[in-house]
Amino acid sequence: PRVAHATALLNKYDDEGNLKDKDAYYADMAYDPIASVAKPADNAHNQSTMGPVFAYKKQFDYTLNIKTRSWEMMKVARRQWPEQEAVYENLKFLLRIQYNAVQAMLHAVQFDPATGKVHPALQS
């Protein structure tokens, strides 16, 4: 039952097949000891493999979501599940390193979030 509950929380769609509200999605996971670890671990995996397959705009949006939602969710979860503090700290460290690497790459290609474009000479 605990794993089934966490799995339901990790599902981005509700029982009717509608996309869940992002703020509520992350807020709910903060109060589950499994989902609050699984989501940032999934973020870390996705962030580490997105370079060759995600468009620059999607990479920017994904890292922004991690910064604004995953990190905040982990702060709340850390207070709820203090025995898991080391896990949250390690995930935060890993996500921050990856976030900084993606941001540095986007800066290097002169990515413009407003247009979703990179410098023409640097397009792949």
Written overview of the protein:
The protein is mostly helical and 124 residues long. It has five helices and no strands. Helix 2 (22-29) runs parallel beside helix 4, helix 3 (35-49) runs antiparallel to helix 4 and helix 4 (56-80) runs antiparallel to helix 5 (85-108). It is globular. The N and C termini lie far apart (47 Å).
Q: How much is the radius of gyration in Å?
A: 16 Å
Judged by helices, strands and strand pairing, the structural class is mainly alpha
DSSP E strands, number: 0
Please give the largest β-sheet: none
Proportion in helices: 55-70%
Quaternary state of this entry equals single chain
On the 0 to 100 scale, the average pLDDT is 92
Residue runs with pLDDT of under 50 for 5 or more positions: none
SSE topology string: HHHHH
Put the structure in a nutshell:
With 124 residues, the chain is an all-alpha fold. It is built from five helices and no strands.
Per-chain topology:
Layout lengths: L1 H9 L11 H8 L5 H15 L6 H25 L4 H24 L16
Helix pairs in contact: 2-4, 3-4, 3-5, 4-5
Keywords:
mainly alpha; 124 residues; globular; single chain
